[in-house]
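Usage

Read records sequentially. Each one opens with the input sequence:
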Amino acid sequence: MSGWLSALLLLFPLSLIFYFIPGTKGSNKYGLRPPPNSKVVIASSIVFPLMMVVLIGIMATNSTPSIKKSLDKEKKARDNTEQQNKDARSDLERLERHMKEQEQ
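and closes with the structure output:
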């Protein structure tokens, strides 16, 4: 196979073609054909990806409450800031009114 055919690896759906292209029967310039995969290799190729999915699911489940907690903290801080801004505006308006009264 040529190097151009290996460029298909960059596009995942097209790289699936390698699953269906048979290899060289017998030996070639790289040596003998490797033996078929054992049952342990086949089983682990199924079990390990499933374990990763389960572990990622567990990590996502455990991180969800902490994300919610930090979002709640942020909302509370934003509400506090808005309230402080309102208080500061009302204090400023009161001060401006007081200064106008002093001028008159």
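Summary fields computed downstream for this record:
- The CA atoms of residues 51 and 57 lie 10 Å apart.
- The mean pLDDT is 85.
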